[in-house]
Amino acid sequence: MLSIIDFVSVLFLIVAAHAAKPRGGSGFDENNVVTWGNVLKLKQGREVQLTMDRAQGSAFESKHNYGSGFFQTRIKLPLKDTAGVVTAFYLTSKGNSHDELDFEFLGNRGGKPIALQTNVFANGRGNREQKYNLWFDPTADFHTYGILWNQYQIV
Fold this sequence. Notes:
With about 160 residues, the chain is mainly beta. It has 2 helices and 12 strands, in the order H-E-E-H-E-E-E-E-E-E-E-E-E-E.
């Protein structure tokens, strides 16, 4: 169980991401909104880097609604002691029904393996967590992660 200090220190952060394929213009600002934190826009707004400090992380969300499809991001996790930090890439619904697909990288104490936790929420019900110890170092370079969602499956 998390103490209140641990809970307050849990930060949601996407370290770097390519925005979803845009519906309108090709720039970040035409298709996304920064919900909190600091976002550095690169390559004419086609790539963003989100940062964190001791007080907060960063996040953005799409201005558009999407149905099924393939969603991907490139993430390089922060180095060193990241206990209490959750780096997340997720899809979520709006409205009364809470649906969500999660990729969450759980922070750790230096030198320990980084775990990836996935979860699926459908109609507000989760409890489908799966945790994986990664076989590679996600802090060494950018890696591509994706979610394929269609009428038959979520991969």
